[in-house]
Give the backbone structure.
Amino acid sequence: MHIRRDRRGAGRLTLALFVAFCVLWVLASGGPPARDWAVLAPEVSNEPLDDAWMAKVRQLAATRREPPVDARLDPVWKAIPGYNGLEVDVEQSYWKTRAMGVVSPEVLVFRQVPPKVHLDDLMPAPIYKGNPQKPAVALMVNVSWGTEWIAPMLEVLKREGVRATFFLDGSWVAKNPDVAKQIAEAGHEIGNHGYSHPLFSRIPTARIEQEIARTNEVIERTVGVQPTLLAPPAGDYDERTVRLAWQAFGMKTILWTLDTVDWKRPPASTIVRRIVPHVHGGVLILMHPTEPTVQALPALIRGIRNKGLVPTTVSACLSPERMETPSSPDGKP
């Protein structure tokens, strides 16, 4: 009996040292890694369940659930993506709290809960914004001119640690393959902006299909990426465009929430005032490669972040996956 108690005590000491190491590792790495606490805490998991302890975990878990939000069709904003909910993994939280020796919100293990209705369930429909509950803002750059400002724009985005979505005109890619490669190699998302910048609502369906297909082809051949997003030239589209893009190419039609109107070359300060006060979760911001846009980018990004939002790509903004933000340092998504 004495030997068994000594072994058990040594096991608990080993567990305590292991937990201390994990805590220090988390603090040093900046975030909690995914782990199976029932496996990593064998000395605790081999013990019988403590019903009173489990009851405490369940009681706290009941207060921390955030329900998922279904994707929906809005009469103004059209297709709006869903957003994952959040709930406590009771079993994992039980083992972790037992290992840590405390039942508190900071120790709980969370998991995401997907919505019942997803964006793809609503298609075909145009998309003007992401889910407002997601703390993400998309930077989208339509490119069919302004080549000379691409490199400076990429440099600003690199310095700020931000990835954007560049919607490329197919004829522009054919003329500027090296620049297109630079955008892709920098880690930015690549979308389709048509081939020769026609107004899609005013051309035959066969021409729309050709515009999309040719651009997809030249982008894939040049940078090795098959676009899944279509930004119609000048934001002009009709039901044919949206339906064709989705049914023939599996592509979502993307518009925008806020427009910088940077093609008029306003002062950078005007762009910032036009955008930052109106930024909120799920916003898609339209811009082009211009000198004032490059000058305004740092302030735009700073303004987005100051609101507790994350500047990112269109796909990341539209994804239902929850996003960790600077305002949630405890690691809760």
